[in-house]
């Protein structure tokens, strides 16, 4: 069962403005990355459902998070069907993210009052997601569907929209400022936040400092 309410999850994402997106088959690496992000100020973290036995790593990570990072809101990403979502909800996922909109997943998550953030690439898809009860929608891949200008243009006719941009998001002042100024609720960031060479070198302090830097830029951009 989720340890955080739907409102707590959405508030954490909105207040911090960033949700790291990460997957690794080694549970120890996942634990260290989660802890590094936590120490850097991150409070919502998306572990992606990729690779064999991803659910086993997630279970380990959830137990670790509740013990060592009690304020961290851990969710699951890359979910494309309801059975998979149900599995992770049993493992304590506090939110569910998918690459595209699946009405069955939306209904399942609504039943449990767990936020579901589906990937959308058009105004129509965003509208459909909102009709299905998705408070926060993900534009994905954000760089390909129009970048920050797409968010700005969406917010004009749909000002109530809460949007997470994932894809083409980088931990730089120019990039993050553009997304925030456009009206993005939060950003999802993966490979740019976790360079493979840094992970291989177990340079966890680099990740902590990069998270602090990105969160600081987001705060400044919001004014």
From TrEMBL:
<keyword id="KW-0119">Carbohydrate metabolism</keyword>
<keyword id="KW-0456">Lyase</keyword>
<dbReference type="Pfam" id="PF01081">
    <property type="entry name" value="Aldolase"/>
</dbReference>
<dbReference type="GO" id="GO:0008700">
    <property type="term" value="F:(R,S)-4-hydroxy-2-oxoglutarate aldolase activity"/>
</dbReference>
<comment type="subunit">
    <text>Homotrimer.</text>
</comment>
<dbReference type="InterPro" id="IPR013785">
    <property type="entry name" value="Aldolase_TIM"/>
</dbReference>
<dbReference type="GO" id="GO:0008675">
    <property type="term" value="F:2-dehydro-3-deoxy-phosphogluconate aldolase activity"/>
</dbReference>
<protein>
    <submittedName>
        <fullName>Bifunctional 4-hydroxy-2-oxoglutarate aldolase/2-dehydro-3-deoxy-phosphogluconate aldolase</fullName>
        <ecNumber>4.1.2.14</ecNumber>
        <ecNumber>4.1.3.16</ecNumber>
    </submittedName>
</protein>
<dbReference type="InterPro" id="IPR000887">
    <property type="entry name" value="Aldlse_KDPG_KHG"/>
</dbReference>
<comment type="pathway">
    <text>Carbohydrate acid metabolism.</text>
</comment>
<comment type="similarity">
    <text>Belongs to the KHG/KDPG aldolase family.</text>
</comment>
